[in-house]
């Protein structure tokens, strides 16, 4: 049994570290207000739209990351990615999350608008039109699956696409779609045949966001993750050609689930990295801060929760790495991936809670990164499959 980190991951982390230092940190220094305690006030206007300067900054980061081959690096080399393995990808996610707040996460993981393996289903013409500009950082996209009445159960979606001559007419409403207000094109999932609840009969369409009939509705006001800009997408008599269909007709649900399955490991690893960051801050603070004449860390009421978070980090790290290893061995890792995502999202929530408790009022201030992680970590128990959906998967696998 070999527990050492793959050489590919160690090398990539070192390259990323140099890239962040030379290309990203100067941008952070120049745009400090987009990262500071009042970041959200500067990023958004009164209508909760991201201000042009922030959008330009994201575009600059994308271009720099694409030129350095970090943007979409988990995509295969045949489409301009680095083709890095699942385990390396996850280890990098952990590494990026275990850092002070910054713009580096956007540069590599794209916050909901970057390259996604679903687009490997593109035909030649779709590759030229969508995938290549996406890989170059020139375009962004959004993944439009969730609807107001279909979230955990997306196969009950109500959006339909009906064939009229050589056109598809799409009607429906999507909600909580990250990057919807800024995407150049959307991956829209709609029922093309079958009944609500059937997993066959859902298709994915690539729809330019300036297509008549497609519009952005309400911009949600999330508690955290505001920068991913989740919003509604409305489709009313939205007409696209046959060339908008991605991959095989009726197989969109499988494309979506494959992507979400892969994304879960990245989320799990990121939660572990963030928990490490929070733990280190809490330990440092507990050593420095004195009450009743002694450092906080000498009180078991403070130090034991830290020991428990440390233990949980270790076991959750091994769990996500084991799941990633199984994926790389072409073994079925659905159960372990669900376990890793469930455990890691809960871990980050607990680590943020413990770090805030150790910091007292200081941790409750927006000037400390703990407050933001407390908010964002909560969302991770809902997205990419909620806690309950992970448990459902685990039980299904146990019963198979
Ligand atoms: C910040 C953010 C970004 C997002 N970005 C995207 C995106 O880019 N694209 C996209 O398509 N979606 C996106 N989503 C939506 C997300 O995927 C859904 O919120 C998620 O799938 C849950 O669906 P729901 O909110 O409708 O909850 P529901 O499905 O209504 O569930 C409500 C609660 O009930 C639980 N529950 C549901 N069914 C059961 C059951 N059978 N047994 C036990 N418990 C159950 C759920 O776990 C949850 O706790 C985003 C959400 C957030 C918060």
Describe this protein's structure.
With 400 residues, the chain is of the alpha+beta class. It has 3 domains: 129 residues, Orthogonal Bundle (Butyryl-Coa Dehydrogenase, subunit A, domain 1); 112 residues, Butyryl-CoA Dehydrogenase, subunit A, domain 2 (Beta Barrel), CATH 2.40.110; 146 residues, Butyryl-CoA Dehydrogenase, subunit A, domain 3 (Up-down Bundle), CATH 1.20.140. The protein is built from 11 helices and 10 strands. The strands form 3 sheets. The protein has a 4-stranded mixed β-sheet with strand order 1-4-5-8, covered by helices on one side. The protein has a 4-stranded antiparallel β-sheet with strand order 2-3-7-6, with no helix packed on it. Helix 8 packs antiparallel against helix 9. The protein starts with 6 loop residues before the first helix and ends with a helix. The mean pLDDT is 95. Bound molecules: flavin-adenine dinucleotide. The site of flavin-adenine dinucleotide has 20 residues, from strand 1, strand 3 and helix 11. Belongs to the acyl-CoA dehydrogenase family. This is Acyl-CoA dehydrogenase. GO terms for molecular function: acyl-CoA dehydrogenase activity; flavin adenine dinucleotide binding. It comes from Salinadaptatus halalkaliphilus. Its cofactor is FAD.
